[in-house]
Amino acid sequence: MTKLIDQINDNLKNAKENSILQFNKEIAQIEDLIPLTLGEPDFNTPEHVKKAAVAAIENNESHYSNPRGIDALRKAVTQFLDNKYNLKYNPDTQVITTAGVTEGIYDVLATILNPGDNVIIPTPTFPLYQDDVILNGANSIFVDTEKDGFVLTADKLENVIKEHNGNVKAVIINTPGNPTGVAYTAEQLSALAEVIKKHNLFCISDEIYSELTYGRQHISIAKLAPDNTILLNGMSKSHAMTGWRIGFILGPKDLIDRINVVHQFAVTCVTDNAQFAALEGLTNGADDGLEMKKTYEIRRDILRAGLEKAGFHSPQPSGAFYIFAKIPEQFTQDDFEFSRQLAHEAKVGVIPGSSFGKGGEGYIRLSYAASNDNIKKAVERIQKFVQSH
Description:
Layout: H1 10-13, H2 19-27, E1 34-35, H3 47-58, H4 71-85, E2 95-98, H5 100-112, E3 118-123, H6 128-135, E4 139-144, H7 154-163, E5 170-174, H8 186-198, E6 202-206, E7 229-234, E8 247-250, H9 253-267, H10 272-284, H11 288-309, E9 322-326, H12 335-346, E10 348-349, E11 351-352, E12 363-367, H13 372-387
Parallel strand pairs: 1-10, 3-4, 3-5, 5-6, 6-7
Antiparallel strand pairs: 2-8, 7-8, 9-12, 11-12
Helix pairs in contact: 3-10, 4-10, 5-6, 5-9, 7-8, 11-13
């Protein structure tokens, strides 16, 4: 008799567990480890946001809400995006509140993809995109961006589309990016937008780190190609609310209508008190993330300078809270083995670059969402590790 496990969704058989979480779990029990692994703010959620959630509970905000999110929250996020990035969305028809951007990514891809469709994914990048493409029976076309400063250029996008005879449905952009911290410039996005519009592609733009940019203003491709762009954003990074699971999908009305169907199938609606907390964050804490950003920038400079001294070269992070560093040539093992050795011998936890796709081979990702003291200690340990090898 055939085992039940052998009869599950064929697409799921090809999907793998998140290698970032797996590797973090593998090294987490090492004694005295300084973890620079996961992409989570080390700040607590602002007090005024927590109090708003408590008040919502006490006010019995504990019922089903509009699947798209409570009205006030949808208005608040559209106002926030308008004030910050000059993006114009109708709160009644162009917004869905999701259980984090993770749900948003799945909802969007489940809506637009048919089996066999092709999706262009610049690499290195967050692995969840590929996983959701696989779950929906579609194909990922990976574009290595290492030699282009870790950005997808318009020329390369055009060439990849031609190589596949125009058989491409979507492209995924993440800016500022995980794992590199690189943010696209206005010129780069403008050139990409022209190609996207020319070929009438879906552009899924993950901008969860939009409030954490350094020395520049965040620019959204949704401003340049609004009819093609499905924008993803949320509260996790800007307001240190990873556990609250609040994300947003914004885009053209007709697309949002269909995405909302998948959203309702998946979660019905997002938790009430978390929505009221997010509302407080967007209205009375619109600049909460800017205070955190000042601290991140100091940490970034400490970590990057220390890594450079140890022989790890990296692109200057213009956003997020990661450094994506090239492993010195004296180390010949792959990045997973290097990261294991670093964890066991130097007691510093990092994520192997290959977790983010082929373009990440030979690199490590370090998160500077950690205390100044831990970053300084990690730098000292890494420098001693390199010197001893």
